[in-house]
Design goal:
Length: about 290
């Protein structure tokens, strides 16, 4: 893993180049949307019409050419990677991610300064990658993936993905016993989304709305609902994201600007960017997107 993200070129072309180089080194990769979340299933795979791959243990997309099924889309096949929508009218890729477990790796995601202090005393040193708010500690070997094993600490390995942020520094060591013990710990309780059956709109995903006013009113109402929350903010944000995706997520009218407005409203109520991304991804999964 020696590939940093260069500058001075078209961002989407850079993402593709980095993905191809990582794949050549044996690291299964996938694109992330702007906002760091995975792409939802394409229209052919919506509601798991393709059969889905919820229980698979190794990376690889289904038969369709899109980066469906989140982490399970990760691949080292250059033909598949090149065919993905790094820059299309459908969506823009905002980052490159990889499937640690598919490469025999485990990422200890340390999300704040306190988590880093804990890791320096509890875990052996290994390769370290700086993140926006903390660090990724990368070990050789795989474990099951568990979020929230302790405050500010997620474990990403099998059936998970991590954002590629560069090669990092230090020598990679084996997954320590302390990490194996962590994944046995029951994580803190988080809101669990309920599966909601939502039929695909008539017209094969074409926008059913008569004018942009309908969408604008819906986004404004969603912002107001989040801003008005006085308790249960986590649950309110999730339910609001679920409602927006239910109404607008299967056509092309919902843009990254709209999503950014919702994330901004949630963060103003104290939600972290990570919680926003998780809530959005969970809502999309609940809807089979």
């Amino acid at each position: 893993m020696t590939h940093a993200i260069p500058s001075g070129r078209d961002t989407q072309a850079i993402h593709l180049d980095v993905a191809l180089r990582l794949a050549a080194d044996g690291l299964p990769v996938l694109p992330l949307r702007v906002g760091k979340g995975p792409f939802g299933n394409c229209r052919n795979c919506a509601n798991n019409a393709c059969g889905g791959r919820p229980n698979m243990k190794t990376p690889g997309p289904c038969a369709c050419p899109w980066p469906c099924h989140a982490w399970a889309a990760a691949t080292t096949d250059p033909a598949v990677i090149t065919s993905w929508p790094w820059k299309t009218a459908w969506r823009y890729a905002g980052a490159v991610a990889y499937h640690p477990g598919g490469a025999g790796l485990t990422v200890v995601d340390l999300d704040n300064a306190d988590a880093i202090v804990w890791a320096r005393t509890a875990l052996p040193s290994t390769r370290t990658v700086a993140t926006t708010r903390g660090e990724h500690w990368i070990y050789q070997g795989t474990v099951r993936s568990v979020n929230g094993v302790r405050e500010g600490v997620d474990i990403k390995s099998l059936m998970s993905y991590a954002r590629w942020l560069g090669p990092g520094t230090g020598t990679m060591t084996d997954v320590p016993a302390a990490v194996h013990e962590l994944v046995k710990v029951k994580p803190a309780v988080r809101p669990v989304p309920r599966a909601v059956a939502v039929p695909v709109p008539a017209g094969g995903g074409k926008c059913p709305h008569r004018s942009p006013v309908y969408l604008e009113r819906g986004i404004a109402m969603a912002e107001e609902r989040i801003s008005a929350a006085t308790s249960g903010v986590h649950a309110t944000v999730y339910r609001t994201f679920l409602a927006v995706l239910s109404a607008h997520g299967r056509c092309d009218c919902l843009t990254e600007a709209h999503i950014s407005r919702l994330f901004t409203a949630a963060q103003a109520k104290g939600e972290s960017p990570r919680h926003c991304v998780d809530a959005w991804a969970n809502a999309a999964t609940a809807l089979g997107m």
